[in-house]
Amino acid sequence: MEFRLSLRQIGLGVALATIGLFNTAAIAQPSAKAEGNPSLYDLKSKWRDINDKPASVSVARGEYAVVAMVYTSCPHACPMTINKLQQIEESLSKGGISNVKFILASFDVKKDRPEHLKKYQRSRSLDPKKWIFLSPESDGDVRELAVALGISYKDLGNGDFSHSNLITLLDQEGAVIATLDNLNAAPEPFLEAIKGAKEKGEALKKVAP
Amino acid sequence: MKRVFGIGLLLLLPLTANAEDLVQIPGGQIEAIWLSPVSRQNKPTTSKLKRMVKVKAFQTLRYPVTNSEFVEFLKKHPEWRKESAPSLYADGHYLSNLKTTVEKADKSPITYVSWYAARAYCESIGMRLPTVNEWEYMAAASETKQDANRDANFLKRILEWYGEPQAGSLKPVGSIYKNMYGVWDLHGLIWEWVEDFNSTFVTGESREDGSFNKEMFCGAGSMSSSDKENYAAYMRFAFRSSLKGRSSVWNLGFRCVK
């Protein structure tokens, strides 16, 4: 009897909690600073490149960047992610866009040290000028980048990580302009997003004196 | 010269929480009722299989962080003020109900605070945000039981709070209930940020059967949360998975641990 009663309350609880949240979002007014486009280049999380030098996603500043998170001991998703990024690279270069960086940031603080990532990069024959592997300094740094990108993940404690396979396109200032939320998605939206951003940029130039 | 150096040193030292503000939580294990018993291969195991989670001993702030404490933080770290925080760290609602002239006595919990800002606050006092496991572990305790996750009365109280329309200002910290460890208001006042809030997904599919869209997620079976018996825990997971790091919500605050 009591259980039935509580089930009814559960339904009510869900409804009211949801209403409560959405109401607030509609009422509150945006403040000044937070109106701008979030830039991933504002992140303070610390990473190292394959030569063990301090680095971050902002190495791509001034260029477009395609960002994904992987761990190289993952037998399936990591190779698939790199294949997808290569498809994106091909699609972009067919569309006449070549000044793009491909950033692969690792979830794995323990195994994906810079020297390991260097070997991995070589084994995949990826051009180090264009393909940037990032090794995290701490779990907190991984968490911060994942949160900023909107990637969910969990360290399973056995060397594996559950994670969503989100691929993000950043503009020259580090703002997200497109995402692919699974590894089967076609790469074309990224080409369109860059073309769109370029047209917008040129239109602005014409207007400016 | 010496004096300048001394002041510099003082500024570098993080403020630390007073001992009386801290509560020791003993290590232990708890049935992770909020995680469904699904193996990594996405094969459901028997529903009777218990998923135990081990939690190491830690210390927590007795109360959620208050408005006046957060205002003190902003004085020392102006980069986290509403007008200074980069939009990556704060959405348009960030600190939208915080008056800059908060009285020392304002013991309402700070809310409308992003995950990034909550983390920065904890770091400034030499602490950190709790993990999901740590938070759920300490919050499972009622006034009398260490693990009240299957205590119908305890769950009913939590769900009643979730269902209660809460308008206007939040009650001060320390006014709802104190659990057996001596920690106040883990339920009934606000929702609280955790470090790894983005470690679970609730998708349309997982609501039904705990499985995931395999194209979107890699080895994600263990991340689902679907125990219907503890609907309150499930709601917390659903809520967390709906958040972004920059989200600011009227009843979402935090406390720090170490």
Strand content of chain B is 5-15%
Instruction: Report the CATH C-level class of chain B.
Output: Alpha Beta
Secondary structure category of chain B = alpha+beta
At CATH level 3, the topology of chain A is: Glutaredoxin
Q: What is the element string of chain A, with H for helices and E for strands?
A: HEEEHEHEHEEEEH
Tally of structural domains of chain B = 1
- Count the E strands of chain B: 7
Measured on Cα atoms, how large is the radius of gyration of chain B?
19 Å
Could you write a compact summary of the structure shown?
The complex is a heterodimer of chains A (209) and B (258). Chain A is α+β, with helices and mostly antiparallel strands.
Please give a structural write-up.
The complex is a heterodimer of chains A (209) and B (258). Chain A is of the alpha+beta class. Chain A has a single domain, classed as Glutaredoxin (3-Layer(aba) Sandwich), CATH 3.40.30. Chain A contains five helices and nine strands. Chain A has a seven-stranded mixed β-sheet with strand order 2-1-5-4-3-8-9. The longest helix of chain A has 26 residues, at 2-27. Chain A is globular. Residues 1-32 of chain A have low confidence and may be disordered. With 258 residues, chain B is an alpha+beta fold. Chain B has a single domain (15-253), classed as Alpha-Beta Complex (paralog of FGE (formylglycine-generating enzyme)), CATH 3.90.1580. Chain B is built from seven helices and seven strands, in the order αββββααααβαβαβ. Chain B has helices at residues 2-12, 67-76, 115-124, 132-139, 152-163, 204-209, 231-241; strands at residues 22-25, 28-31, 52-55, 58-61, 191-192, 217-218, 252-253. Chain B has a two-stranded antiparallel sheet. A two-stranded antiparallel sheet of chain B has the order 2-3. Chain B has a two-stranded parallel sheet with strand order 5-7. The radius of gyration of chain B is 19 Å and the shape is globular. The two termini of chain B are 35 Å apart. Chains A and B meet through α1, α4 and β7 of A and α5, β6 and α7 of B.
